[in-house]
Design goal:
two-stranded antiparallel sheet, mainly alpha, single chain, 67 residues, rod-shaped, transmembrane helix
């Protein structure tokens, strides 16, 4: 067994690369699977348009008047 990465042979380096690759694919797959239940209606591509209503003037008596 190699106790140092510097003195490790080619097979040990290959094992480390394979384990890192499998772990990276696992993390990516988990992230993609976690997004499948997301609500895509509120994304940046499909924003809702809010239109302005009629202008309202508030008077000092507390009532509002629509012009």
């Amino acid at each position: 067994m190699n106790h140092s990465i510097h003195s490790a042979d080619r097979a040990t380096h290959l094992k480390i690369v394979v384990v890192a690759l499998v772990a990276g694919i696992g993390v990516a797959a988990f992230g993609i699977a976690a997004r499948t239940g997301a609500d895509y209606s509120q994304t940046a591509q499909s924003t809702q348009v809010i239109k302005a209503g009629k202008p309202v003037v508030v008077t000092s008596s507390g009532s509002s008047e629509v012009r």
